[in-house]
Design goal:
Layout: H1 13-16, H2 24-50, H3 75-80
């Protein structure tokens, strides 16, 4: 029999899993990533909360023209007048 065709008994689950105890040094990368994701989420939430609304509520003054800005007279209007 060749090496590739050899049949071996299946290994038990004990052979595949090894669990070691984690120390504080092992958890630092996960903690840093968690803090970074939290800060990024806070930044995005703050941007969305502070952004200018797309629809401006003009309120009751919209119909009477009080909210309109005064327009300046252009250069051509001075010459004609």
């Amino acid at each position: 029999m060749t090496h590739a065709q050899e049949r071996r008994p299946p290994r038990s689950a004990e052979d595949y899993y090894y669990r070691r105890s984690l120390g504080a040094r092992d958890l630092i990368p996960a903690a840093v990533i968690g803090v970074g994701v939290g800060l990024f989420a806070f930044y995005v939430a703050r941007l969305l909360a502070e952004r200018t609304p797309l629809v401006v509520d003009r309120g009751p003054q919209a119909g009477n023209g009080a909210g309109k800005a005064a327009r300046s007279v252009g250069i051509g209007a001075r010459r004609a007048g």
